[in-house]
Amino acid sequence: MSINWETTKAWIWRVLQGTGLLAVAAAVAYWYFAAVPVREHRVETGEVVAEVDTDESDSRLELLHKNVKKYGTVFNTVSAGTVLNGVLRRKSS
Question: Is the same domain home to 33 and 49?
Fold first, then answer.
């Protein structure tokens, strides 16, 4: 009896591919359905201090501080549920 090795290799390859696919599917299902403990984390207040090394006037620094509060990513993201206090000051020499 002669064994066709090309057919045997192809069959073994298909089994291995199917096993790999099943392993990936099992991992995804485990990840998706696994119980994840959820704890609530909340930042209630925050203090931001920014030091700027500049020769600009105090009025320009105030304008910068106002613009950071109005358009800054951190302020816009966190400020909805958090009380943020911030200071922008000139870096001391």
Answer: no
Give the CA count within 13 Å in the CB-facing half-sphere of 70: 6
Same domain, 50 and 26: no
Place of tokens 């298909």: 14
pTM: 0.49
Domains held by the chain: number: 2
pLDDT digits (tens, 9 = 90+) for 64-91: 888 888 887 777 777 777 888 888 888 8
Contact 86, 65 (CB under 8 A): yes
* Cα separation, 31 vs 43, whole angstroms: 28
Q: 81 lies in which domain range?
A: 45-90
In this predicted structure, the answer to whether residue 93 has a pLDDT above a threshold of 70 is no
User: SS3 of 7, please?
Assistant: helix
Own/partner long-range contacts of 33-42 (Cβ < 8 Å, ≥24 apart): 42/81
